[in-house]
Amino acid sequence: MDSLLKNAFSPENFRQQAHNLVDMLADYLVQAQTKELTTVIPYKDPKESLTFWQKDYEESKGDVSNFFQQAIALSTHLHHPHYMGHQVNPPVPIAALAGMLTEMLNNGMAVYEMGLVSNPLERIISELLARKIGFSNEASGLLTSGGTLANLTALLAARAAKTDVWDEGNTEKLAVMVSEEAHYCIDRAARIMGMGNAGIIKVPVNEQLQIRTDLLETCYQQARDEGLHVIALVGSACSTSTGSYDDLEALAAFAQKHKLWFHVDGAHGGAVVFSEKYSFLVKGINQADSVIVDWHKMLMTPALATSVIFRRNDDAFRTFQQKAQYLWANQHSKDWFNSGKRTFECTKLMMSVKIYAILKAHGEQIFSENVTYLYDLGKTFATLIKTRPNFELAIEPESNIVCFRLVNRGMAINDLNAHIRKKLLEEGKFYIVQTTLKDNLYLRVSLMNPLTTEEDLIALLDEIERLATIIDL
Ligand SMILES: *Cc1c(COP(=O)(O)O)cnc(C)c1O
């Protein structure tokens, strides 16, 4: 064998490099957790960053340890308690280790023989989540790469249940009903499915940015009058911008009345099914036809890993009916162990192994504690904001997503808050994001790190107030 290839597969090199990497990552965890690392986001503008890496690529070949070190140093540090940005979690370390295992084994394929471990674990995990949702033994599910793909998978199942489009092609104008605050991927999925502008019926929201259930009937009748065949109703649990939960019980009742497929997008907040304290937020979720939950948001797993759970196992198999002789002998049998019969993906990651490793190491309880702690922290933050006259809360938070803004200066509030957010990014001491609600710009935090404390939140508000006094607009 060529010595390059032989070296690349050397077990001894691997052993040494892996030990080094684990040491580096453990050091990173110490520095992030103790805030010895003073920046949570080492922000550079994109051009500067590209130039850095182009130069790096030309300079050093073979020095992978230095590369790993730099990749750590120059990334956003999700494990830092001041990370409060997007809805991605700091993975629990055991899941990252499982990630190393799965990347080496590479047995994730959606056909049983190439997923001897990942397919049964996927079933166990799906059944666990189905039970938490409150589904009966008839339920089943699968894992797929992300909430976006999961929502598309669920809507395809809805279409398969309500129409013959898979075989016949489009013969009528289909539509889905969804809140105007729903994640953009629902809109995208509907467009991919050929529904166009008219097929995405956006129901207005109330003050809490929840779907207005009192308008469902009007929106539905209007769609019918326009000649649309409404196939599904989607509930957000919770919405992305503000973390607002739609009234799932009311949505379920409406869907039942009009024989619509009821889908719950629980990418972020479906995880409350693990929390005794907060599961009331998704009352009615057990009446959904399909539910998705991202493990890589509130459930401590590295991206991507998303569950799609169907209330009825048969629905899971209805969607994808192509023949693939080289994969499975009988395309019509409903074998759980060939997960490709139900997923968009063919080869996929061994996601189930990472989730299973968390369960093995820490038990189901860790999910409950994580969700409960972070949702509690959202309420704590809201209370802190309300005690400071310079700040205004967008809405009372139901989850760990909190939107607020600074209102103290006699200047355009949107400009002020946009400036503050930009300053914070440049400083890098805190990472938060922004969102626009009814033309107003708000600062937005997603409290994703269970090591974030009330003191960190006080420090954030102090820092924003300090920046406001020195800001030059
Ligand atoms: C994050 C999110 C999505 C998208 O999920 P990805 O895993 O990022 O693809 C969809 N819906 C909601 C409500 C979300 O919060």
What is the CATH class designation of the largest domain? Alpha Beta
β content, as a range?
5-15%
Q: Describe the strand arrangement of the main beta sheet, using strand numbers.
A: 1-7-6-5-4-2-3
Shape: globular
Report the span from N to C terminus.
65 Å
Order of helices and strands: HHHHHHEHHEHEHEHEEEHHHEEHEEH
Low-confidence stretches: none
Q: Write down the CATH topology of the largest domain.
A: Aspartate Aminotransferase, domain 2
Identify the CATH homologous superfamily of the largest domain: Type I PLP-dependent aspartate aminotransferase-like (Major domain)
> What characterizes the major β-sheet?
7 strands, mixed
CATH architecture term of the largest domain = 3-Layer(aba) Sandwich
Task: Assign the structural class, choosing from mainly alpha, mainly beta, alpha/beta, alpha+beta, or little secondary structure.
Answer: alpha/beta
Can you give the mean pLDDT? 94
Radius of gyration computed on alpha carbons: 24 Å
Which range best describes the helical content: under 10%, 10-25%, 25-40%, 40-55%, 55-70% or over 70%? 40-55%
Give the bound compounds. pyridoxal-5'-phosphate
Number of helices: 16
Q: How many beta strands in the DSSP annotation?
A: 11
Please indicate the count of domains.
2
